[in-house]
Amino acid sequence: MEREPEISIRIFSDPHLLATVRCAIEGWSKCIGFQERSRALIALAIDEALTNVIRHGYGNQTNGMIWLHLWRSTEPRGLRIIIEDLGKVTDPSKIKGRELADVRPGGLGVHIIKETMNESVWEPRASGGMRLTLAKWLNAEELAASYPAPSNPEQPHS
Amino acid sequence: MSTPLVIKNSTIDSSAVLSPQSDIDMARAPAMREAIKQALTTKPSRLVIDLSVVDYVDSSGIATLVEALKWTREANIALSLAGLRPRVKTLLEITKLSAMFTTRPTVEEACKA
């Protein structure tokens, strides 16, 4: 069963909007029960994902469309985010972080996303562009401290 | 909309000190990069990047710091990062770059290091 996202945001591919999105994501993840360190990591991962879309998907053009869809997940408890764009399609098998021993500027975004999120899946959209699905789960401490899970489990769009 | 990055410049002894006043992300990293290049033209003995009021750095900001490392090594200028906040420390750890940079709690200590 598909369920509509709890929150959807559409932004232009403009780097000056990243700070606003970070604030929104941090606030939302706080409501779910993520503690400060996790919230920071989630905001960082989203920021890196959007930066990649702007840089590689839209070639730094600021008028591309990016959609973020956000769900609270219940099994496991946490959040799920889908980021979609209409930019250049990339073969998912070629999306990988660089070797960290190779100290040079750039190429860190994918590594950061994979390091900070529990799930990260890139795929082409049927109608063009790319889709990135991200998930982050509450850790044991956050689970213990958070409110009970909502009673209406959902499944994000497939 | 994010505001432009304001970067304070100062000199302590023979050290050039750059103090960015807000987050360093994709939108603001180019300004930081230019400030670093400009500071190195004065040929200081040390470049100190004071991150004490910077709460957030993304991979664009990290890339700029790595460029600074490369440029200072080439010019035989010492580089220190001062006043790192927890989020910035975490990012350096995630990217396995912590050991690459000399870090100090304060600008004053960085200038003496």
Structure report:
The complex is a heterodimer of chains A (158) and B (113). With 158 residues, chain A is α+β, with helices and mostly antiparallel strands. Chain A has a single domain, classed as 2-Layer Sandwich (Heat Shock Protein 90). Chain A is 32% helix and 25% strand. Chain A has helices spanning 18-32, 36-57, 109-116, 140-145; strands at residues 7-12, 65-74, 77-85, 119-124, 130-137. Chain A has a 5-stranded antiparallel β-sheet with strand order 1-2-3-5-4, with helices on one face. In chain A, strand 2 and strand 3 form a beta hairpin. In chain A, helix 1 runs antiparallel to helix 2. Chain B has a single domain, classed as STAS domain (Transcription Regulator spoIIAA), CATH 3.30.750. Chain B is α/β, with parallel strands linked by helices. In chain B, strands 1-2-3-4-5 form a 5-stranded mixed β-sheet. Chain B contains 4 helices and 5 strands; from the N terminus they run E-E-H-E-H-E-H-E-H. In chain B, helix 1 (29-40) runs parallel beside helix 2. The chains are: A alpha+beta (158), B alpha/beta (113). At the A-B interface, helix 1, helix 2 and helix 3 of A face helix 2 and helix 3 of B.
CA-to-CA gap between the ends of chain B? 38 Å
> Quick check: average pLDDT of chain B?
93
Placed side by side, the strands forming the largest sheet of chain B appear as: 1-2-3-4-5
List the helices and strands of chain A in order.
EHHEEHEEH
The overall number of domains of chain A is: 1
Give the strand tally of chain A: 5
Output the structural class of chain A.
Answer: alpha+beta
What does the overall shape of chain B look like? globular
Biggest contact: A-B, 29 and 26 residues
Biggest β-sheet strands, sense, barrel of chain B: 5 strands, mixed
**What helical percentage do the residues of chain A reach?**
25-40%
| CATH superfamily (homologous) name of chain A | Histidine kinase-like ATPase, C-terminal domain
* Distance N to C terminus of chain A: 9 Å
